Amino acid sequence: MATFRPPRSMSLKMRSVVQKLLLVFLVWTIIEAHISHYRIARTEREARAKGVLIEPTRVYIASLHWNNEKMLRSEWNKGVVELVNTFGPDNVFVSVYESGSWDNSKGALRELDQELDRRGVPRKIILEEETHKDLINGPQEDDGWITIPDGTRMPRRIPYLSRLRNLSLQPLLELAMNGTTFDHVLFLGDVVFSVSDVLNLLKTNNGHYAAACSLDFSKPPPFYDTFALRDSRGHEHASQTWPYFRSSKSRKAMVNAQPVPVSSCWNGIVAMPASTFTGIRGLKFRGIPDSLAAAHLEASECCLIHADNPGSRTRGVFVNPAVRVGYNRPAYDAVHTFVNGGDGGGGGSGGGGSWLSLTEVYFGLWRSRFARWFTSSWFEERDVRGRIAKWARSGEGRVEKGGFCVVDEMQIVVENGWKHL
Q1: pTM: predicted TM-score of the whole model, two decimal places
Q2: What is the pLDDT confidence band of residue 353, given thresholds at 50, 70 and 90?
Q3: Would you say which domain of life the source belongs to (predicted)?
Q4: What is d(CA 199, CA 232) in angstroms, rounded to the nearest whole number?
Q5: From residue 252, how far is each of 29, 276, 363 by CA, in Å?
């Protein structure tokens, strides 16, 4: 039998159509990159302009520290003092919990305490002597411990961190009972930040949010806190580089340089209404139950707090891409270098540019497409959902509202920090 071959004219027409479609697609992606680059630059200009506008507001600053002496002395203490100067000592309360550091974080925080005292700032700075080693070798609690594969009982990292975060909020509850209230709780991580970063964060989505988060970086361009960040559909990131998100709603907001609706975030600095944590229905940080963690599952307390918060559904949780912080000065500077042109080569510090070069925007759009086309979070999410469902069936009344936070991990406290198992 003769093999059918399409007429040469038909083959040429098909090739011509494909070439034209590819050309149109290429032209469109170039246009899309230019539009996105322009929008990012415009948003940067607007954010920097708004950052100088200070409205009366009362802020409760909460922070945890462990072995952060270098950051405290070089950046963090100074940043907190500048915030106090901006809002006014009467409008700020500083709550710091330091937990058994073996560097001189305690000394650095004593210096901050003295500086705040000179300014008359109300505060509570706790310097905890208990180290991780003390915790591990101390009495085992009924909750927050797990049996690891070698049969040893070890403290879980997330319940431990949840307890510390709740301790850092205890003064807020005590003050509220005495009639002293605040507008915002500002959770400050061990990051480099500026006053304008905080002002812009507080104004995210015109101040209408259940939580607003920065973007955090340790070694840019990848963002850092993958554990807590979930897009609007509860998925993990598609890519650690811009525009990050798998869901179209979150991704489009990032591409358009708008506040990004997400299910959960933390990422360095977080602002939440203070009323979230006060009153009879005030929230507390938590981990997933030990019985669920035993199925080799874990979830960030910084994600679960959004899952537990009814306001997350009514007021929304947002990442503000105009607010970017770093876990070191080079990282911070790298995401605050404004590129005016499209050469992608570092750029200058021009006030009208974008923090992303045109080249980064273009390749970021393509990396995102390939990640979404050729990878899927479905398989891991299905496995995790199956383990949660099995756990729920095995005990009456068992339910986990933060299922989208849960991942296939086991995390324990060890003497020099924490580790995965």
Answers
A1: 0.91
A2: confident
A3: Eukaryota
A4: 24
A5: 14, 29, 16
